[in-house]
Specification:
The protein is α/β, with parallel strands linked by helices. It contains six helices and nine strands. A seven-stranded mixed β-sheet has the order 3-2-1-4-5-9-8. Strands 6-7 form a two-stranded antiparallel sheet. Helix 4 packs across helix 5. The relative contact order is 0.14.
Length: 205
């Protein structure tokens, strides 16, 4: 998150009292980064499917007794998960290496769920980084069956347009695709031609 051009805005908004959810937080390293910037941890939330990752985060950072962030073990696809407790209360959702794990249909479902978690007002943000492809489409998973949808900027914008149409909201989408020299090697693990990383910011109007 800290490598994005919008990071200073995020830190400023959080220091001013807004709240952030790190969706698919894994060990909660992004949350700890924000705390190191002076953001009160009580304004930070993390969610991951696996409670084990959250517990390992406490062990890794040795802060179980000092950090006041709220961590929620939850399935984004379960409408009755504990994420319900923060519906309409979050100002910024960070989701990196998360949407790209799923199909278009699943990503659309997730995006609408994220829209429900965010405060229903202009300026609410969704931001992150994910695997993308210059040729958007469904790509077969290497294992486990099914497919994952790889976006480019145009398809990501189109999906959020559909989110708006189905939820009565409106979103402005910014994307930046590319690879630095280190990432050229990193994306080879996807096993797909045309893969790049895409940074994105989606702002409610």
């Amino acid at each position: 998150m800290s490598s994005t051009p919008h990071y200073p805005e995020v830190v400023e908004r959080l220091k001013d009292g807004q709240k952030l959810l790190d969706l698919g937080c894994c060990f909660g390293q992004e949350i700890r980064q924000l705390v190191s910037e002076g953001v009160p941890s009580s304004r930070l939330y993390g969610s991951d499917l696996r409670l084990d990752f959250i517990k390992l985060g406490y062990s890794l950072f040795l802060d179980k007794d000092t950090i006041n962030a709220s961590f929620i073990a939850a399935d984004i696809f379960d409408p009755d998960s504990d994420l319900k407790q923060i519906d309409g209360q979050i100002d910024i959702v960070h989701a990196s290496s998360f949407f790209h794990l799923f199909s278009w249909t699943q990503q659309l479902q997730m995006a609408k769920r994220v829209a429900k978690i965010l405060r229903p007002r202009a300026g609410s943000l969704v931001m992150g980084r994910q695997g993308a492809n210059v040729k958007p489409g469904e790509y077969a998973r290497k294992s486990g069956g099914g497919s994952r949808y790889r976006h480019n900027g145009a398809s990501w914008e189109e999906m959020w347009k559909q989110v708006g149409e189905e939820t009565g909201t409106s979103w402005v989408v910014e994307t930046e695709m590319g690879l630095n020299p280190r990432e050229v090697e990193e994306v080879k693990r996807f096993g797909e031609d045309g893969v790049q990383w895409m940074k994105y910011l989606v702002r409610r109007e």
